[in-house]
């Protein structure tokens, strides 16, 4: 039950209804939207919400459900009921198109059985009667016109008409050509007058051709004449047209008679289409306002998380602005929320949001809240919003408010949602405040639920020490003198009357007088509220700052993890490179030692020569060590570091590019990673040196990748000799380049031709030191091991 009668209008529900109305495809769906009302049965509300939620899911998932063509077939079904009446072609085609939509929708849900159970309930036990379509298809074509062969009689008549028209045309052409030859014809061609084909004849020649004059030109110089022979043929055609019309009517009567037994089923189809259109419109509106389905409770309580006023949401969307979400809860312990704060701070919007969303929910509409929100059901919604003064009823503003308060007190219950805007206004505050407090106390004893906005300090104090009532305020930035539109439950808010007056430039002497007249106690209360508001804002800002810091910390941890992983991977690469370099150094050292020993043997251990050779050996080994330890010299740039510059981490060879500079911190791009480094931990290098380092790293990376992907085994079985040798050449070049000590060639045994061909070919390579067969148990001479220097 809603009170007063304009409750829906004051809360904005009528505007919501109109927006849903615009999404309907048919007048039937629009009629259902107009009848939409607030209901109190939990099961019914739950069913309507779930149907809308399922249809919204279909639309968002772009399911192939085509609903575009249907008509009000109830009117047509009612017409069929009357004996002797018949449906014309257009009306039959409307039934046909509507039934095609019905059967298409039924087929859609049949293919998705149990996926949308609440929508399936709309057509439960509804049969698919395709005989109706077949009967209409036998008479009408795809465009809804009567088929020429709808009956044998119609087919004969149609054929006779076609033949007659052809004969008329042929006769008319012959007469027209003859008239042209005789120069009887005026400028122009054959034309139609009064439905008859006529020849334009010059007026002075009208007696030269027998026929009937149907019209003449404005000047009277041309007459439009139908030849006598053609006139007789046209009369026959007209008779055939009458016969055709009579036959069409007979067919339509017969078809309507055949459809008459299906009238109840047509009405069922009509009901299904109407409900479908209605649910579809609600789902489209839900998408427009970003609505979801909250948890539906049976108890009269609510917990809104990130709720948005739907009308405000749509209005702001056109202006590309966002709505500040509302978070509020009302339950058995916190029954009435008393909202205070400055004017234009969002108090009324807060209260109207709670009321409008409640009306929408209990009308079966999804609401713009987070899915975790909870909303219960109220038996009554009472609203006192706006000025209801009436000259006719001899009611002043305050009298109108008191009339509503009387009704609220008399009829409110624990299942009543009360919404009061600017409680207690309209009369002397000295008396209005106590009166409002008394009403609030009685309503609280009745355990009603509600949201009330006020500026009265006595109501704030009363709510502060009364169970069931809770103060709340709209946050206000008193440094910028702007509202934040955020509801904070737990503390009352100041009206900021003096601060706002001062901000808009009211004269200081006026403000001073006003403060003196207000009284010390009231000023102290208001100052206390202002201080509380400041503290709340500071806490709010601190929370936001803390949240930002936590996000930054998370990002830094993630960056560090990536950097750690990057370093681990580089560590493996460096170890591999070091091993390869060590192998090369050992090879070089071994060669040097072997050569030295060979020369000593040649000189037959001559002491002087041996000593000289040993010194040379030490020098060469020392040279290799110095060469290995030498690092590329990097010159550092002492100029100031800017975004885009390249830097090198001190005591490392790691280079990075500067992306951002935040005081002493630099955000660097290290390859694919991002890292924050202190300014004193890096030194600037030139772009040329950075480019060389990047190219070097790129080459090393490619070499490592090539080594990792290279397999020291080549299968040549089944290849022709020339192809096999080409493969061996390419493979051997790659193995030598990558520094592999040996490779394995699998050529098979066979007749030994491929084996001999390959081994002979390998002898030309100076890098090949020796060739060996595989162990007999693992392939024997079918596999050749090639050892490389």
TrEMBL record:
InterPro entries for the chain: DNA_mismatch_repair_MutS_C, DNA_mismatch_repair_MutS_core, DNA_mismatch_repair_MutS_sf, MutS, MutS2, P-loop_NTPase, Smr_dom, Smr_dom_sf
Source taxon at top rank: Bacteria
Record-linked SUPFAM superfamilies: DNA repair protein MutS, domain III (SSF48334), P-loop containing nucleoside triphosphate hydrolases (SSF52540), SMR domain-like (SSF160443)
Gene3D superfamilies: 3.30.1370.110, P-loop containing nucleotide triphosphate hydrolases
Pfam (any one): Smr
Segments forming a coiled coil: 525-606
Keyword Acyltransferase appears in the UniProt entry: no
HAMAP family linked to this entry: MutS2 (MF_00092)
Oligomer status and interactors: Homodimer. Binds to stalled ribosomes, contacting rRNA.
Functional note: Acts as a ribosome collision sensor, splitting the ribosome into its 2 subunits. Detects stalled/collided 70S ribosomes which it binds and splits by an ATP-hydrolysis driven conformational change. Acts upstream of the ribosome quality control system (RQC), a ribosome-associated complex that mediates the extraction of incompletely synthesized nascent chains from stalled ribosomes and their subsequent degradation. Probably generates substrates for RQC.
Family from the record: Belongs to the DNA mismatch repair MutS family. MutS2 subfamily.
Protein name: Endonuclease MutS2
Gene: mutS2
